[in-house]
Amino acid sequence: MRAQRPGESALLLLDAIDSLARSNVAYAVVGAMAASVHGAVRASMDADAILAVHSDELAALERRFRDDGFTTELRYGDAADPIGAVLAITDEHGNRVDFIVGLKGLDAGAYSRTIEIPFHGEPLRIIGVEDFIAMKLFAHGPQDLADARSALDAAGDNLDLPLLRRLAERFGQETARALDAALRAR
């Protein structure tokens, strides 16, 4: 394992990605790590990613992580929850990675729109900016909205606005209205 002390969840993520590759599961890093790539640098001790896996395959994936030496916790959302499930992995240092599965409204093309960045000599797949902004507007917490605004500002004219609008609409009318408001405020 790469992580040797607390505060190294990003290194735990790299180990987890190795397990995902052996299971042929696509992923995209989201959350604070993606925010830092898209213009909203902030301190965070966690690592989050979305997985392209069906919920009925999660038990097998959880077993893979356990076999690879991770401690796991699998939680399923209820019918009203926008997240189908979260598979959390931790290590002996308290580092944690949350894998989100079944996010309602997420466009399946998000995994093909990831950007690859080097991290500790390894490729890391980060959610694309349009998908990131739409997800953050959908989450609509204060930090999420701040992250979306920062990403909009950082992207400037390099956004695919028709794609961004389509992605926001997939998350619902409230998200589409939040995008319109954010674009007007630019």
Give a verbal description of the structure:
The chain is an alpha+beta fold and 186 residues long. Helices cover 42% and strands 23% of the residues. It has seven helices and seven strands, in the order αβαβαβββββαααα. It has helices at residues 9-22, 31-37, 58-67, 129-139, 142-155, 161-170, 173-184; strands at residues 26-30, 47-52, 71-76, 83-90, 96-103, 115-119, 122-126. Strands 1-2-5-4-3 form a five-stranded mixed sheet. The protein has a two-stranded antiparallel sheet with strand order 6-7. β4 and β5 (96-103) form a beta hairpin. It is globular, with a radius of gyration of 16 Å. The N and C termini lie far apart (43 Å). 37% of the residues are buried.
Tag the structure with descriptive keywords:
two-stranded antiparallel ribbon; 7 helices; 42% helix
Radius of gyration equals 16 Å
Number of strands: 7
Q: How many angstroms separate the termini?
A: 43 Å
Question: What is the chain-wise order of helices and strands?
Answer: HEHEHEEEEEHHHH
Mean pLDDT: 93
Strand order of the largest sheet: 1-2-5-4-3
Output the number of helix runs: 7
Shape from CA axes? globular
Low-pLDDT regions: none
Please summarize the sheet with the most strands. Answer: 5 strands, mixed
- State the helical fraction: 40-55%
Q: Which structural category do the helix and sheet elements fall into? A: alpha+beta
* Beta-strand fraction estimate: 15-25%
Write the layout of secondary structure elements.
Layout: H1 9-22, E1 26-30, H2 31-37, E2 47-52, H3 58-67, E3 71-76, E4 83-90, E5 96-103, E6 115-119, E7 122-126, H4 129-139, H5 142-155, H6 161-170, H7 173-184
Parallel strand pairs: 2-5
Antiparallel strand pairs: 1-2, 3-4, 4-5, 6-7
